[in-house]
Amino acid sequence: MTKIITFTACTALLFIGFTSIKAQKNTDDKIKKVLYFNPEVDPDIEEIKEPTNHAFFSAVSDNLSERKNRMLRTETQVSFDSIDKKTISDYCINNEADFAVVPKVKYFKVGIGKYVFSNQVIVSMKLFDATGNLLTETDYDTYRKNMRLLGSTVNSVKIGTNGAIKEIVKKLRKIKSTSETGF
């Protein structure tokens, strides 16, 4: 009888130990949900907004498929320069998102005419947590970083978006490492 009780007690302790280890592992590997707003396009011309949105979200989905994140998209455009903390928080709560990204795509104006653009862009992003606090922001200039003179505008938007996401991830790692060390 004592052997059965001892065996049952040891089995129960092993089971409790394995489940607690598994629970700890799942919290670290949790898939984060990132909410992306439509990018603010500068200059504000209706004809270039849809191709810019398509190229931007194509690059985001390609980039996030490599990471353990899930992209949520909202068709809302938020002003990049004047962001309301409450609005970001409400969108994150309603979409059950862990983070929110507010992007901006600025085209370079080249030439004399009103509608003459180059294929160079600056992609800027601001990353917020679910409560609406700004975590980090970055911008990626395709001309200065890659020295791209030729190529399509769609590819420039994709390259700029990928570069901006990599910069944000790099800054988040730096913030995380400094918060863990106590500085």
Fold and architecture overview:
By secondary structure, this protein is α/β, with parallel strands linked by helices. The chain is built from five helices and six strands, in the order αββαβαβββαα. The chain has helices at 2-28, 46-64, 85-95, 142-146, 153-181, and strands spanning 32-38, 40-42, 69-77, 99-109, 117-129, 134-141. Strands 1, 2, 3, 4, 5 and 6 form a six-stranded mixed sheet that branches. Strand 5 and strand 6 form a beta hairpin. Helix 2 crosses helix 5 (153-181). The protein is elongated and about 85 Å long. The relative contact order is 0.14. The model is unreliable at 22-28 (pLDDT under 50).
Radius of gyration: 22 Å
What's the number of extended β-strand segments?
A: 6
- SSE pattern: HEEHEHEEEHH
- The shape is elongated
Strand residue percentage:
25-35%
User: What about the largest sheet?
Assistant: 6 strands, mixed
- Class inferred from helices and paired strands: alpha/beta
The total count of helices amounts to: 5
Please report the distance between the alpha carbons of the first and last residues.
57 Å
Mean pLDDT, to the nearest integer, reads: 78
